[in-house]
From TrEMBL:
Pfam families: Transposase_23 (PF03017). It comes from Colocasia esculenta. It comes from the Eukaryota. Residues 60-101 form the Transposase Tnp1/En/Spm-like domain. InterPro entries: Transposase_23 (IPR004264). This is Transposase Tnp1/En/Spm-like domain-containing protein.
Length: 131
């Protein structure tokens, strides 16, 4: 019903007279998504080089270290970082046997990755606010 109501508020189009609307609801949603992505990237850029906590899928801390890069084109562990991951360096293992999100031939668990650069899912990186 909400979709029907939304459609009724939008100008109708037909193949002989297409209407382009700049401020329709779909354009606004897309603009909001783009704004959110920019804010998220800015926040991650500000985290680069700072002490961070790395979480597992259960949101439990498994390691500490720093974010090295969020450049989506940079190659880490043989693949581009993209928009889901960030490059991190693990300095301390809270749970040494916890699995990594992205594994390679030498690194399967947190303890294998201490001191090296690897990929970590951005949504599982938090600022370490310990003083």
């Amino acid at each position: 019903e909400k979709l029907k109501a939304l459609k009724q508020t939008q100008p109708s189009t037909n193949s002989s007279n297409p209407v382009v609307v700049k401020d329709d609801a779909f354009s606004k949603i897309k603009a909001l998504e783009e704004k959110f992505a920019k804010l998220e990237n800015k926040e991650l850029e500000e985290m680069t080089g700072k002490k961070m906590k790395f979480l597992d899928l259960e949101n439990e801390q498994v390691a500490e270290g720093i974010v090295m890069s969020i450049d989506p084109k940079k190659i880490v562990m043989g693949r581009p970082i993209g928009h889901v991951y960030c490059e991190v360096s693990i300095h301390y293992a809270n749970k040494p046997d916890a699995p990594l999100f992205v594994k390679d031939d030498q690194r399967f668990r947190i303890k294998d990755a201490i001191g090296s650069h690897l990929l970590w899912i951005r949504d599982y990186v938090l600022v370490d606010e310990a003083k």
